[in-house]
Write a structure and sequence with these properties.
Largest sheet: 11 strands, mixed
CATH architecture of the largest domain: 3-Layer(aba) Sandwich
Number of strands: 17
Strand content: 25-35%
Order of helices and strands: HHEEEEEEEEHEEEHEHEEHEHEEH
CATH class of the largest domain: Alpha Beta
Oligomer: single chain
């Protein structure tokens, strides 16, 4: 799981530009000898079984990023954000731009204090509208010669680090961790031959409004849906006490309430029993944000977002426990087995 997740994190996949990560996931599924389907919006689907309750497990393969909106006369790039990027995390970053000629590296510089004429400048957050990406050129023509075009996508350069015993820190754990869990579970579930229809979905454009999941809800209309995403922990420094504690290393978390959905209390009861019998640590809580569950739930599915606890969401230093990621895969398989054996769980 560790090696798989590291490889997936390094593959770019800005919302709307998921081709490369989708091709990687498709290749892994084909190595298992299983067929895949890609719908018109770009979701990737793999299905096991045809009869019994229809269960969808979904994780989004898109990530936050930037897009080139203009090439200035001096060769620098203007950008716009794709997804919920905090402006405070923009400056001083190295970016990688996917162009027709290959990857181009750029930097988002910070005005040095030596050149500041107003002491208040040091206190201001630089807005994305004022950001420029420097690709080492001095003219628009020179930048275009590198292959850079308007609407090319870019991501922050990924640096994967480890702190403590098993905490992985990197930009993009949200939600490449969920994608890795689904691949792991699919590999295990295909050998079980459960009496259920299991659809594994790697969705697109989650970060800009759950758009891929809306298509899945309309297309598949499942009985049950489980979104495998991250859940912001409250155990990091300076997090406050507004929410109950969700802790790294203490198991996957049921996202019972967020900004867009209320999960099924009946499913919570069932999952807590499954986790207890399977000796899988489990947490439950609430928070902000949304998952793909929110829109699929509207088509009548019994829904539960299952969060991989993670610190510093949407930052360059997202942190998650490898132990929690492994336990999430274990829990999902136990849930599938439970529903397959007793369909009337809702």
């Amino acid at each position: 799981m560790k090696e798989l997740l590291e490889e997936m994190i390094r593959i770019p996949g800005v919302s709307g530009y998921e081709d490369e990560i989708r091709d990687f996931i498709r290749g892994r599924i084909e190595e298992m000898g299983l067929p895949t389907e890609e719908d018109n919006i770009g979701n990737l689907i793999a299905t096991l079984g045809t009869k019994g309750p229809h269960i969808v497990f979904i994780a989004h393969m898109d990530e936050l990023g930037l897009v080139v909106t203009n090439i200035e006369v001096d060769g620098s790039l203007r950008i716009r954000k794709v997804g919920g990027i905090d402006d405070r995390t923009l400056v001083g970053r190295i970016v990688e731009i996917a162009t027709k000629k290959g990857k181009v590296t750029g930097v988002i510089g910070l005005k040095p204090p030596h050149l500041m004429t107003d002491s208040d400048d040091k206190k201001k957050v630089v807005s994305w509208e004022d950001v420029r990406v420097d690709v080492g050129t001095r003219s628009r023509r020179e930048t275009e010669g590198l292959g850079v075009r308007v609407l090319d996508a870019m991501v922050f350069r990924k640096e994967i680090s480890y702190i403590g015993r098993d905490l992985m820190c990197a930009r993009g754990i949200d939600d490449r961790a969920g994608c890795a869990v689904l691949l792991d579970m699919l590999d295990k579930a295909r050998k079980r031959k459960l009496p259920a229809k299991l659809s594994f979905v790697w969705s697109v454009q989650e970060e800009i409004g759950l758009r891929g999941a809306k298509v899945i809800g309309f297309k598949l209309q499942p009985d049950y849906v489980f979104a495998v995403d991250t859940m912001t922990t409250t155990d990091a420094p300076m997090q406050g006490n507004a929410y109950e504690k969700i802790l790294l290393g203490k198991g996957p978390a049921l996202r019972m309430l967020d900004s867009a959905a209320i999960a099924s209390p009946k499913l919570r009861k069932m999952i807590e029993g499954v986790a207890r019998r399977g000796r899988v640590p489990l947490q439950a809580g609430s928070g902000g944000g949304a998952t793909d569950v929110a829109v699929i739930q509207e088509f009548g599915a019994s829904a539960m977002p299952i969060g991989i606890p993670m610190r510093y969401t949407h930052s360059p230093t997202e942190c998650a426990s490898l132990k929690d990621i492994g336990n999430t895969s274990r829990l999902l398989l136990l849930i599938a087995e439970r529903i397959a054996k007793a369909p009337k769980t809702r």
